[in-house]
What does this fold into?
Amino acid sequence: MSQTSTILVIDDEPQIRKFLRISLASQGYKVLEAANGAEGLNQAALNRPDLVVLDLGLPDMDGQQLLVELREWLHVPVMVLSVRASEAQKVQALDGGANDYVTKPFGIQEFLARVRALLRQRPEGQPAPAALQLGALHIDLASRRVQLNTQDVALTRKEYAVLAELARHPGRVITQQHLLREVWGPTHIQDTHYLRIVIGHLRQKLADDPTAPRYIITEAGVGYRLAAAEA
It folds into this structure.
């Protein structure tokens, strides 16, 4: 991903905007700023940024509503950056179209790493990648084949379905409810124990240590994401 990517920061706190502007500019990004929702919509429409960083607590509208409006026409990654830490708020934002959710206060190195991961993602509306290479792990969605260190990995239908759904959105947080709905059906969106069991089996078969995961990363209480491939 080119270091000339444009990032729009929508946040009503001047000190946060200044901190992010300095941090992002130091990495070569062009930074646009907006202090409220209306200004953010205008900046997004005029400049078509490559990534949006969105606070939920805006003075003129709720960030969740702004996210819905952005998603009607803007197909770039959106990272929510908010003091709202409840599971319900995170799930609402992620199901509403956010690609990632970071709570304040936050570490700048993790924030920058998440920015890089989001910028590596395919734009919404383009076909999912036919194959992904994540270190020693190769996922071929076209042939439904998974290999680790060039050796085939035998997966059950549910295990493959969960891994494939994560692989269609590399680097993006996928909520538990979304995975349960897509893999088990709408009557099972509360059956999180099914998902935990399958994730556990996947990690065993992929030799993915849950305490230091290389492939499947847990977003506590919200869902999972597959590590983004290096550019």
